[in-house]
Specification:
This protein is of the alpha+beta class. Helix content is 20%, strand content 47%. It has 2 domains: 6-41; 44-173, Nucleoside Triphosphate Pyrophosphohydrolase (Alpha-Beta Complex). Keywords: Hydrolase.
């Protein structure tokens, strides 16, 4: 089945720090032309920290949705970082813990209809306390919850952040 679209023209409408916005004209399999708005976004990493019988989350305000979310620690990959390096850095920056073990639990495309960002997911265990190295522009509340409580919230569809839902789904289906 060859349903690929061929890019005819591509124009950068905006170039930013973490994303670029492109407008592509594509040729469809039937020969017609169509416009595609594409977000080129740096890849990210999300980590579910499991500490004994508890899990750690961050509660933070998300400007794009104008609301707070309870989510797993996460961040964007920088330079030549591997996903594991980014996950370790983000845990230290956001919750002041360093994982001794990072268990890969896949990757997701959060919005593949318009964005090329990949998010790599991990479960972190064997956590060691480190100095908190918070970013200047992040205001985060660390929330520690018993795994039983997290499972009940997950079953009630309380979590709405995609990377968090995916990481919890992996954890609960493999534990």
């Amino acid at each position: 089945m060859d349903n690929e679209e061929k890019i005819v023209t591509s124009e950068v409408l905006y170039a930013g720090k973490i994303l670029d916005l492109k407008l592509n004209t594509v040729e469809l399999p039937n020969g017609k032309l169509a416009k595609r708005e594409i977000v080129k976004h740096r890849n990210g990493v999300g980590v579910l920290p499991v500490d004994g019988d508890t899990m750690l989350f961050v509660k933070q305000y998300r400007s794009a949705i104008e609301d707070y979310l309870l989510e797993i620690p996460a961040g964007l990959m920088e330079g030549k970082e591997t996903p594991e390096m980014t996950g370790t850095r983000e845990l230290q920056e956001e919750i002041g813990l360093k994982p001794t073990a990072l268990i890969p639990c896949g990757k997701v495309w959060p919005t593949p209809g318009c964005c090329d960002e990949e998010t790599f997911l991990f479960i972190a265990t064997q956590l060691e306390h480190q100095a908190l190295e918070a970013d200047d522009d992040e205001f985060i509340e660390v929330v520690r919850l018993p795994i039983q409580t997290v499972r009940a919230l997950y079953d009630k569809q309380y979590f709405t952040d995609a990377k968090t839902v995916c990481a919890l789904g992996y954890y609960f289906s493999h534990s």
